[in-house]
Amino acid sequence: MDIKKTHDIGALGPSMKGQKVVVGGWVEDLRELGKLTFLTLRDVTGVSQIVVAGPENLQQVKDLTRQSVVLITGAVQESKARDFAYEIKAEKVEILSRAVHPLPIDPLGRLESGIDNRLNARALDLRNQKTASIFKIRHNVLLCIRKVLTEHGFLEVNTPKIIGSASEGGANLFSLKYFDKQAYLAQSPQLYKEQLTLGLERIFEISSFYRAEKSHTVRHLTEFTSVDIEAAFMDYTDVMEILEQLVVSVFEHVEKDMYPGTKELGDRNQKTHDSF
Amino acid sequence: MDIKKTHDIGALGPSMKGQKVVVGGWVEDLRELGKLTFLTLRDVTGVSQIVVAGPENLQQVKDLTRQSVVLITGAVQESKARDFAYEIKAEKVEILSRAVHPLPIDPLGRLESGIDNRLNARALDLRNQKTASIFKIRHNVLLCIRKVLTEHGFLEVNTPKIIGSASEGGANLFSLKYFDKQAYLAQSPQLYKEQLTLGLERIFEISSFYRAEKSHTVRHLTEFTSVDIEAAFMDYTDVMEILEQLVVSVFEHVEKDMYPGTKELGDRNQKTHDSF
User: A93 near A72, Cβ under 8 Å?
Assistant: First the structure.
């Protein structure tokens, strides 16, 4: 592409009136109103209204389908719309990818779909803001865990997942052939953690681990992300205190302090367009 | 243990003269000098000199072996030693674990050991400051990569490692039995990444991946930590720019700005005791 995004939508606001921007995303909605067409354009950081006018641009968006991917070059201007604090008057509309209709699921979440349909159309499902929020929050939870543990002097390590024998009793292991040998997928970093604390004192690992147990609930997975800490010179009360602080910090961070680019900016825009 | 560490050694300094502290670590060196015994005590954050006096305390350290783990209660005082900016006058010496000699390797690194001996005595090898530094730097490199990518609006994701079919051609996969099915260990997050960008735009994953290829060099591992990014609305020049900034930031961060508790504080203490 010759033209490139200059801004995430979340970085725009009414204070930028008159500024020329290039934004990109997918079309959530289209409304023809006389000699204007209004697009609702979403990217991962937010949602904006695009005003399209003029014969050439109107021709471009005439048969445009919802969820198509477009690049818009235009200028920020005040909006008369109740739902938007500003809008972009399009100078150029470039269609990067046209969505084929009917869509397999409704990414706005107005029509609910079963989990199988959602997973089969996962790319569209990720445009559902409820689904996207799970990924955004998860990112921030993990980031905050790493930050807090680092501040407590914990070092992150990566232990082997292909191991020669079980680390702990009790759990069933997946086995695999490692060239001529029998090997297993690690069910925890336990043995490695204990050795590591003898020289590094406080360590943690956030990684996938594996247990070959048939799932009876949605909370027992064969492959899961484990947050695991181990510390020398601490007893269980010290560890509980750290874990308590960790949980509190994660909630505070997710509520107040999500990192730039990972949350939607612009409360007013968000109000009417997020499904939760 | 009844007594607990109040400070990491790296947090102590000559400005704390008179303050009572409890520190814990392993004994790197012991020297009897008349009616005093000097211990060099190291924890993961630094190294300090401990002055032991009085019949009861001297009795405690009489047969103490190097690399034994001790808790020291004492007060910070000025040091006349050339190598230390301060020292701790021990009031109480508690031996938590006595090291059995001869040691299998020299954790100070004066005597070099082969890799097999080092791995067999890995806990001691981690007390070699060259080995420990690799873990500390690695922690900070990963932390900085996550920080920089987050600042660029990338979300961290965790894709499945147990997969039903190969993500990319070319690489040999480890196969395993997943209950009644055949499964494979992922060699990259490629297919997942591509789907994820359709709704989340910029994503990355830092995780172990697996390739069933016999290693011909120490840089080709069957299990390795992969840093992998994928982005929508970018071309290769944008990606190269981000990766270039990432590498520069990592070097700057490791050099200037390692997180508290993950580097040794107190330059003067460090000078004569680090192996590099």
Answer: yes
- Residues whose CB is less than 8 angstroms from the CB of residue B248 and which lie 6 or more positions away in sequence, other chains included: none
In whole angstroms, give the CA distance from residue A41 to residue A27: 5
The answer to whether B162 faces chain A, any CB pair under 8 Å, is: yes
Alpha helices in A110-235 (DSSP H): 115-120, 122-125, 129-151, 190-200
Q: What is the C-alpha to C-alpha distance for residues B42 and B269, in angstroms, rounded to an integer? A: 11
Q: Which of A61, A8, A6, A13 is nearest to A39 (CA)?
A: A61
Has residue A168 got a pLDDT over 80?
Answer: no
| Candidates A8, A154, A208; nearest CB to B158 | A208
Cβ contact B229:B149 at 8 Å: yes
Phi-psi group of B170: left, alpha or beta (phi > 0 → left; psi -120 to 50 → alpha; rest → beta): left
Q: What average pLDDT score do residues A145-164 get?
A: 95
The pTM of this model reads 0.90
Within the 47-76 window of chain A, which residues sit less than 8 Å (CB to CB) from chain B? 71
Do B47 and B10 meet the contact criterion of CB atoms below 8 Å apart? no
Domains in chain A: ranges and CATH: 9-97 (2.40.50.140), 129-274 (3.30.930.10)
Q: What is the pLDDT of residues B176-186, one digit of tens each?
A: 999 999 999 99
Each residue of B121-151: pLDDT tens digit? 999 999 999 999 999 999 999 999 999 999 9
Residue A101 near residue A65 (C-beta atoms within 8 A) = yes
Chain-chain contact of A222 with B156 (C-beta, under 8 angstroms): no
Question: Nearest CA to A201 among B93, B87, B10, B110?
Answer: B10
ipTM over 0.95: no
